[in-house]
Design a protein that fits this description.
This protein is mainly alpha-helical. It has a single domain, classed as Up-down Bundle (Rhopdopsin 7-helix transmembrane proteins). It has 10 helices and 4 strands, in the order βαααααββααβααα. Residues 47-296 form the G-protein coupled receptors family 1 profile domain.
Length: 343
């Protein structure tokens, strides 16, 4: 995670870090964190692998929505691959995999993180186009265009993490930023990763999802002379739950990570509680990548049906394919089936 995930990384300006890593003090804490790291890694790999298989086998990326979901799950799953390296370093307080592996893990870690965030952001725009005016935005929502956009997002994610390949290495037995890097550069690095990796995507998601909910509410109130519509109310409630779940999960998992990074710049020394807290928020940011499959399972009836089909093939549900075909461009059908896929 940007190389910040070990606590020597919190000392880019030469600050003195307390010897908080004594085995007597942190033995129990280290064991608990190691177990949590392992649990998050297993759940993340299993959940996102299930989503990938579901999309490829049952949906075959037949819609723009599932193209983005596939790329989101792929990025989240690959994001989990770097977690064992980070966990081992934190547990042993040392990097045992060499300088090249350090650079590769940090760069790939960053690429997958940004791709995941960018995909989720684009999906908020896709949700808006699909539910508000699917006919108008039909040509933007074909699977082919979605694959092109997804490919662009992977390339775009490479740009913010290029400095990691240059300035991160296995120094003094730890995979961290080079000690000779100026503190101003470190501040600039944290600022632009915060803007690109959290602030801007969070603002875009908030704007499009809020506009979506307001638009659906106004459309429901204007229909039938303002008479209540059970179907419209159900759709509005479902969209609202989706918005709250996605935005809240993203904010809770990522905001503490960036807050701790900014706070680390202004500490004259790092205390044990702060170091422990930082390790926890790093784990929390990784946990976000295993939260998306859970959101699919909880909020998407279609994905629940697909998951049951894969896990319990003898209890195959009817109408497995075609539920998420959002390219039919019929307004009512599109509105109903689009909610089967969580953004």
């Amino acid at each position: 995670m940007f190389g910040f995930s070990n606590f020597s990384d919190l000392d880019p300006t030469g600050l003195v870090v307390e010897d908080w890593l004594s085995h007597e003090d942190l033995d129990a804490f280290s064991i608990v964190m190691a177990v949590l790291y392992l649990l998050v890694c297993i759940l993340g790999l299993a959940g996102n692998s299930l989503v990938i298989v579901t999309v490829l086998k049952l949906d075959k990326m037949s819609s723009a929505t599932t193209v983005y979901i596939f790329n989101l799950a792929l990025a989240d799953g690959l994001f989990m691959v770097g977690l064992p390296f980070i966990a081992i370093q934190n547990f042993q307080n040392g990097w045992a995999f060499g300088n090249l592996a350090c650079k590769l893990v940090m760069v790939l870690d960053g690429i997958n993180q940004f791709t995941s965030v960018f995909c989720l952001t684009v999906m908020s725009v896709d949700r808006y186009m699909a539910l508000v005016d699917p006919l108008r935005f039909a040509h933007w929502r074909t699977p082919r265009r979605a694959k092109i956009i997804a490919g662009f997002l992977w390339l775009l994610s490479l740009l913010p993490v290029l400095p990691m390949a240059v300035h991160f290495s296995a120094n003094d037995g730890l995979c961290t930023m080079d000690s000779q890097v100026a503190s101003d550069w470190w501040l600039a690095f944290i600022c632009y990763t915060f803007v690109l990796g959290f602030a801007l995507p969070f603002a875009i998601m908030l704007v499009f999802y809020t506009t979506l909910v307001i638009t659906l509410r106004n459309a429901r109130q204007q229909s039938l002379g303002g008479a209540p519509s059970p179907e419209g109310q159900r759709l509005e409630n479902q969209v609202t739950r989706m918005v709250v779940a996605v935005v809240l999960t993203f904010g809770v998992c990522w905001l503490p990570f960036y807050v701790f990074n900014f706070c680390s710049l202004y500490l004259s020394s790092l205390m044990l509680d702060f170091a422990r807290g930082f390790e926890f928020v790093v784990l929390l940011s990784y946990a976000w990548s295993c939260a998306n499959p859970i959101l699919y399972a909880c909020l998407s009836e279609t994905f629940r049906r697909h998951f049951r089909t894969l896990l319990c093939p003898r209890k195959r549900s009817p109408s497995i394919q075609g539920d998420d075909d959002t390219e039919g461009y019929d307004l009512h059908d599109t509105t109903a089936c689009e909610m089967g896929t969580v953004a």
